[in-house]
Amino acid sequence: MKKYKPTSAGRRGMTVVSYGEVLTSTKNAPRKQLTKGMRSTGGRNSGGRTTNLYRGGGNKRTYRDVDFTYNKKDVPAVVESVEYDPFRSGFIALVLYKDGERRYVLAPKGWKKGDEFVVSETAKPKVGNRLPLGNIPVGTFVFNVELKPGAGARVARGAGTYVEVVAQDAGYTLIKLPSSETRRVISTAWATIGAVSNEEHRLITLGKAGRARHLGRRPKTRGSARNAVDHPYGGGEGRAPRGHKHARTKQGRPTGKGQKTRSPKKYSNVFIVTRRKPGKLMMNGGR
How far is it, in rounded angstroms, from Cα 29 to Cα 12? Predict the structure, then answer.
């Protein structure tokens, strides 16, 4: 992590990732053929209504088309560069396949220019290689995990995250998620060996409101400071307590404070072996 001298209130305590030590270059533009423009929604849906609060503004960003399907199998590839992606917390890598095609993929921790990998059922469990969960040894850390074969990676895509393979059982693989939940996934689903790069992302301290605005984050208003029509905590004379036994969201649904928020009839409940453990560890942002 890079720290600054406290030349101002905003600089005091501010930290950033030392990109020069991990990226191939901090000045190279992304490959144009693998990018596209993207408009900011400001947290609004197609009808113009705000569906995601406290979003808006921010710097203009170019979207990188990252490959999460990995449908080019048994073709070796080499890493050409490790780059920054403004749309995700982990780094991405520009890879060149042996047949001449280039793609962006999510980079695992430790990848550098010149490293090689392959997507194959017979691949060795080496960092960066991708293979079915049923072929991965127990105790291995993986990321970019599919939940349905061929549907693309869905689990463990954030910076520094990984999933542990804990058992193989009757056509299913048991994996332990970063939330401490243990889940069954069909063994023919694919995963990449290793952990997502940029593990220091969680240590970043923005330091000032301006950096949050550059990221498209607008100021947040406390629920207790709103009117009664706008939030369950709102209204009252002066500072009033929450007024509810359990914490709840703007829409009145339960949230945080160790409460169970998962739907009891969710379709994927049958795949959960051990529920995550809410409480002090989770609420403090721990693994």
Answer: 31
Rg (CA), the chain: 22
With contact defined as beta carbons under 8 Å apart, do 177 and 183 qualify? Answer: yes
Residue with tokens 């280039």: 102
Q: Where are the domains of the chain?
A: 220-247
**Distance from C-alpha of 12 to C-alpha of 180, rounded to nearest angstrom:** 35
pLDDT tens, N- to C-terminus, the chain (287 residues):
899 899 999 999 899 999 988 899 877 789 999 999 988 899 999 999 999 999 999 999 999 999 999 999 999 999 999 999 999 999 999 999 999 999 999 999 999 999 999 999 999 999 999 999 999 999 999 999 999 999 999 999 999 999 999 999 989 999 999 999 999 999 999 999 999 999 999 999 999 999 999 999 999 999 999 999 999 999 999 999 988 888 999 999 888 777 788 888 999 999 999 988 866 544 444 44
